[in-house]
Specification:
This protein is of the alpha+beta class. It has four domains: 2-67, no CATH class; 75-146, K homology (KH) domain (GMP Synthetase, Chain A, domain 3); 158-214, no CATH class; 225-266. 36% of the residues lie in helices and 28% in strands. The protein is built from nine helices and 13 strands. It has helices at residues 69-96, 127-137, 148-155, 166-169, 179-184, 191-194, 204-207, 209-216, 269-303; strands at residues 2-8, 14-20, 30-35, 38-50, 62-66, 101-107, 113-119, 140-145, 225-228, 231-239, 244-249, 255-259, 264-266. The strands form three sheets. Strands 2-1-4-3-5 form a five-stranded antiparallel β-sheet. A five-stranded antiparallel β-sheet has the order 12-11-10-9-13, with no helix packed on it. α1 crosses α2 (127-137). The radius of gyration is 34 Å and the shape is elongated. It starts with a strand and ends with a helix. Residues 270-276 have low confidence and may be disordered.
Length: 304
């Protein structure tokens, strides 16, 4: 039986690979992976499960075997080579005056391929850079441009919640996020509060959005007039997670926090109806007065 694992490289990049159950692989084991035409070296970061027979195994990298001490020694040497290649690449980037930020360098285990990850604001013509690096390193070069979200996922870090960034832990795909999601979750629209380390909107705004929509059902809106045991007031704040609202009491000028079940919203529509009816009555009276004055004026003109 084939098992599916998540592989983590020395640069922090991750991808999936499968192995035969007989290898007895487990989390944190180092192994050699056959990826495309190259042999790579990485650590098993997670066991995913049995490989589905519906998937085409030829499209998924295969784990050849568990790494030996000799393999680990060669991998450490490759990391030293990667650091040297990083310095060389930075020098060439400055020489060619390319507007790009180099993140990291990865050597495959067999040293047949060197991958350079970088970020840039726009498209970069790095053909000359590839030519220069190929001559210096005497191997095949691959330059891969990634976005700022992917950059943060590779570099890692801690979020405002104090935990490892979601993009490093479990998020594999970045979905579309907009400010409307923050509004619907009653969050402050201050960019500092709703932006992650990457400078974009926090990923958690997306995967928590449906839960907040469910919590919002039945919750009164800010600014609504309401009645409670303490009197009549106005809702000035609410907490979707605790299902509580903060009411400003009109008579006592105090603030009261209570569950939503203990208040009753006074919908202003009925007052609007009364107000509109009064306005219509006043308008009719004014029109009647005008008609009366006009009639009296006509009568006077006829007598004259």
């Amino acid at each position: 039986m084939n098992l599916l694992f998540e592989i983590e490289l020395d640069t922090g990049a991750k991808y999936e690979a499968y192995a035969d159950e007989s290898l007895g692989l487990k989390k944190n084991d180092f192994c050699l992976i056959r990826k495309d035409k190259y042999l790579d070296y990485g650590k098993i970061s997670k066991f995913i499960g049995n490989l589905s027979t519906e998937l085409n195994n030829s499209e998924i990298p295969k784990i050849d075997r568990k790494a030996t001490m000799l393999d680990k020694s060669k991998a450490n040497e490759n990391q030293m080579r990667a650091k040297s290649a990083y310095r060389t690449a930075v020098t060439q980037i400055e020489k060619l005056k390319l507007q790009m930020k180099l993140l990291n360098v990865h050597f495959t285990y067999d040293r047949k391929l060197v991958t350079f990850l970088f970020t840039a604001e726009g498209r970069i013509d790095f053909r000359q850079l590839v030519k220069e690096l190929s001559q210096i390193l005497n191997t095949r070069i691959e330059l891969r441009q990634i976005g700022v979200r992917d950059e943060t996922a590779v570099l890692g870090g801690l979020g405002t919640c104090g935990q490892t960034l979601c993009c490093c832990r479990f998020l594999k795909k970045f979905e579309s996020i907009n400010v409307k999601m923050a509004k619907e979750q009653d969050l402050s629209l201050n960019p500092t509060n709703i932006s992650g380390m990457c400078g974009r909107l926090k990923c958690c705004l997306k995967y928590e959005h449906e839960d907040y929509i469910e919590l919002d059902k039945g919750m009164p809106r800010r600014g609504s007039s309401c009645e409670c045991a303490e009197g009549v007031g106005k809702i000035v704040d609410r907490n979707l997670l605790t299902q509580k609202v903060t009411v400003y009491l009109n008579e006592s000028a105090k603030y009261l926090t209570c569950p939503k079940e203990e208040i009753r919203v006074i919908y202003p529509n009925k007052y609007k109806d009364i107000s509109s009816s009064k306005q219509e009555t006043t308008k009719k009276k004014n029109e009647e007065v005008k008609d009366t004055k006009k009639t009296e004026h006509c009568k006077k003109n006829r007598k004259n």
